[in-house]
Specification:
With 208 residues, the protein is of the alpha/beta class. The chain has a single domain, classed as Metallo-beta-lactamase, Chain A, CATH 3.60.15. The chain is built from five helices and 13 strands. The strands form two sheets. The protein has a seven-stranded mixed β-sheet with strand order 7-8-9-10-11-12-13, with helices on one face. Strand 1 and strand 2 form a beta hairpin. It is globular, with a radius of gyration of 15 Å.
Length: 208
């Protein structure tokens, strides 16, 4: 089931993903082409490359539910539900848990800003989209089957730090993100994969 879900997961570049199926789910759409209309859109935080109202509009329909942190919600229109770290609820049959996302050794994503990662449960599989974060203590307590982790450094974890995070979380599969757009490149994703070889399966998705 885990790999079946990954086959339905499209990387849209940077931190953006679309999960095809019923429902159709997007995470942090940014600089996307018009695509499959969304049933649910998750927005991790208010920065322009994550909360992009213009990109949301490309996939939003009348009954689309947007799940966002409090700051992002003020920039979005439609059926917007806010979450804070620790909140859990169900949206269109999908169980959602909001978890913290913040920096520990830089100031771009302060802890008190309330930025988020999301864990969604689909068909018994738990998928974690980390948002923009460093390796934070809360990761030691996360339980997830698939982890989407930033690897670029500068604003988020470096590949080496993401390796530490992956070992702490210990998902069945880890997928690197946050590279190839604003900062980071393919070598960051490959370092992440190579250093975890034999410990955690890493899947590098091609950009759609």
């Amino acid at each position: 089931m885990i790999h079946e879900l990954i086959q339905r997961l499209a990387w849209l570049g940077h931190d953006g993903y679309r999960l095809d199926g019923d429902p159709v789910i997007y995470f942090d759409p940014y600089e996307i082409k018009s695509g499959t209309p969304a049933d649910i859109i998750f927005i991790s935080h208010e920065h322009f490359d994550h909360c992009s109202p213009a990109d949301v509009a490309k996939i939003q329909k009348e009954d689309t539910v947007i799940v966002a942190d409090v700051a992002s919600a003020t920039k979005l229109q439609g059926n917007v539900k806010t979450m804070k770290a620790g909140d859990r609820f169900s949206v269109k049959g999908v169980e959602v848990e909001a978890v913290p996302a913040y920096n520990v050794n830089k100031q771009f994503h302060p802890k008190d800003a309330g930025m988020l990662g999301f864990i969604v449960s689909i068909g018994g599989v738990r998928l974690y989209h980390a948002g923009d974060t460093d390796f934070i203590p809360e990761m030691n307590d996360l339980e997830t089957d698939i982890a989407l982790l930033p690897v670029s450094g500068t604003y988020v974890m470096t590949a080496d730090e993401a390796i530490q995070a992956a070992r702490a979380i210990n998902p069945k599969v880890a997928i690197p993100m946050h590279y190839g757009a604003i900062v980071g490149d393919q070598t960051d994703a490959e370092l992440f994969r190579d250093q975890l070889a034999g410990k955690i399966e890493v899947v590098i998705l091609d950009k759609e």
